[in-house]
Amino acid sequence: MTDSKQTLPPQHQDHQPGLESQMTPAPAYRAEDYRAAGKLAGKVALITGADSGIGRAVAVTFAKEGADIVLLYLDEHDDAAKTRRDIEGLGRRCLSFAGDVAGAAFCAKVVEETLGTLGRLDVLVNNAGEQHPQERLEDISEEQWEKTFRTNIFSMFQLTKAALPKMNKGASIINTTSITAYKGNPILLDYSSTKGAITAFTRSLALNLAPRGIRVNAVAPGPIWTPLIPSTFTAEQVAKFGADTPMGRPGQPEELAPAYVYLACDDSSYVSGQVIHVNGGTVLNG
């Protein structure tokens, strides 16, 4: 008899950030009924964590809207190659770089090569992240705490700092925060803390860059079916992932991508310092 709360087949991966190619079912990332309107024509977008999950969906949807794409990822080469093939299949140029976005030298190299090859940088999507559940605060090592912060928030500082001198008036920065920044999570203490930091970083940077005409916003996903999920939780937890949302299911990466398009394009020209919540119907303050 099937559990009424089961949303997915039980599964687990042993390595973060996980591989999309090993997920069942595969995440939906390129909505076939999406109608592009050239909203990002002629622009260049740099996206971290773009090999799979939310980053892949955003990259492919941006390409549909006419943008050339720069993919940053850690070491998931096969997933990244598939994303790149999809982008080039849409007639857009694509650069890809594997490395640690928390490293200043790597970020500087990526920005320099982006400008040298594609000539400009209009949209920066800070999306890379990791999470490691622990039942008690005492179980979180100093190494884990520091690593989560380096990946999730130090990377945004390093890459944004490298990119800003090359971004002009009208550019857009979009950060991926999380529902956990607003409602917390008892077993994701360090992850939730970084997402709170990202929300504050977004709001403060928006105020700082407003005189320069650069907008800064964020998207706060709820439970989304990405490789981070089977590589984070047990098979039993994965099977019920997203069941506690008002919609009773996890979201798909393709369901977030239009929010990033909106924040990247001129449709949101009077929007900065804001967070769009895409979470299956959970009402949150902030």
Write up what this structure looks like.
With 286 residues, the protein is α/β, with parallel strands linked by helices. Helices cover 35% and strands 13% of the residues. It is built from eight helices and seven strands. Helix 1 (53-64) links the parallel strand 1 (44-48) and strand 2. The mean pLDDT is 95.
Q: Tally of extended strands?
A: 7
- Ranges where pLDDT stays below 50 over 5 or more residues in a row are none
Strand content: 5-15%
Work out the helix count.
8
Radius of gyration: 18 Å
Highlighted features:
286 residues, 8 helices, 13% strand
Describe the secondary-structure layout.
Elements: E1 44-48, H1 53-64, E2 68-73, H2 77-89, E3 94-98, H3 104-118, E4 123-126, H4 142-163, E5 172-176, H5 180-183, H6 189-209, E6 215-221, H7 235-239, H8 257-264, E7 275-278
Parallel strand pairs: 1-2, 1-4, 2-3, 4-5, 5-6, 6-7
Helix pairs in contact: 1-2, 1-8, 3-4, 4-6
Question: What does this entry show, briefly?
Answer:
The chain has 286 residues and is α/β, with parallel strands linked by helices. Helix content is 35%, strand content 13%.
